[in-house]
């Protein structure tokens, strides 16, 4: 008898797959590759155009089957939010997000539903999301509390924060992500740097101008007198509300034209940008994304990060941790000191590069997938 693990792969065909789409792709590929004897992986997707089904089949070779629901994504999300549909039936279901058929089921009969929580922004920073998305996530968290057999999170820090907000008992499981599989330096790296308009030396940060993301503090730090005059590449949107990156940079004292942003980049271009940076700065005050640090570590880029719990846990000493404290001028000063030191001390930068490479070996999709298989076996 063959045991089938059905993975909700719908995010692969979302209008903007984003980080959850990348996670879904790499985890599902690894689940297929690590399937135990007499086990297989199938997919679940909302009603979509045939080209979407073809894309999923090509992206996930070895997928045993693809269940198509009768509802399109928007309608399915609304239905699952209130438990109005039983599709796609029972069995063992794993969702790389909260998008899952969470309902009453009989585990003794072989039915399981496991979901993944990537952050708690819908609770801690609902302004980061649209009103509809925030409400949907809060509703699905409540359904997960009631019906999920387990909840996967990326770090113990996130597990602690989630447990403080919802009583999941012992159902939370920590399974780390890894760097996206396509993050490899291409043979034409120098040409790509030129085409992207990047200088020979620069800094990289990630996030938006939302206050808790910390990009504003990075700009303020770089505008301090005596700071190395290095351009800053921001991996994120150039606008947040009525604030514009160029305007905030100029008001912070950063030289005009020294800040450039990329909202999204192909994997090869991202690899080139990260690998060529003098330092990668992860400045978030809270809700830090561990995958961003892991990807910088993989490419040997020296890392400066805030001391939020997710970053500290992920880095394990492989980066320079900057205490946030009460975010403000003191944090900006500490951030400026750390950035300046890493950018001007070649020996330190080399040590951080080596330490990051070593730390990156602790994260891999194969290991993550094997732990997912073990989780379902334990259930």
Can you describe this structure?
This protein has helices spanning 18-33, 50-59, 73-82, 121-124, 131-147, 156-165, 189-195, 215-222, 245-251, 267-275, 290-298, 309-315, 329-344, 346-360, 365-378; strands spanning 3-8, 39-45, 66-68, 92-94, 112-116, 150-153, 172-174, 203-206, 232-235, 239-240, 243-244, 259-262, 279-282, 303-306, 320-322. Helix 7 (189-195) packs across helix 10 (267-275), helix 8 packs across helix 13 and helix 11 (290-298) crosses helix 14. The model has no long low-confidence stretch (mean pLDDT 94). With 379 residues, the protein is α/β, with parallel strands linked by helices. The chain is globular. It has a 7-stranded parallel β-sheet with strand order 3-2-1-4-5-6-7. It folds into 2 domains: 3-178 and 364-378, Rossmann fold, CATH 3.40.50; 189-360, Glycogen Phosphorylase B (Rossmann fold, 3-Layer(aba) Sandwich). The chain has 15 helices and 15 strands.
Topology:
Elements: E1 3-8, H1 18-33, E2 39-45, H2 50-59, E3 66-68, H3 73-82, E4 92-94, E5 112-116, H4 121-124, H5 131-147, E6 150-153, H6 156-165, E7 172-174, H7 189-195, E8 203-206, H8 215-222, E9 232-235, E10 239-240, E11 243-244, H9 245-251, E12 259-262, H10 267-275, E13 279-282, H11 290-298, E14 303-306, H12 309-315, E15 320-322, H13 329-344, H14 346-360, H15 365-378
Parallel strand pairs: 1-2, 1-4, 2-3, 4-5, 5-6, 6-7, 8-9, 8-13, 9-12, 13-14, 14-15
Antiparallel strand pairs: 10-11
Helix pairs in contact: 1-15, 3-5, 7-10, 8-13, 11-14
Binned strand content: 15-25%
CATH superfamily of the largest domain: Glycogen Phosphorylase B
CATH topology name of the largest domain = Rossmann fold
- Class computed from helices, strands and strand pairing: alpha/beta
Number of strands: 15
Please give the count of helices: 15
CATH architecture of the largest domain: 3-Layer(aba) Sandwich
* Sheet having the most strands: 7 strands, parallel
Average pLDDT confidence is: 94
Strand order of the largest sheet: 3-2-1-4-5-6-7
Q: Shape, please?
A: globular
Cα gyration radius (Å): 21 Å
How many domains would you count in the coordinates?
2
Helix content: 40-55%
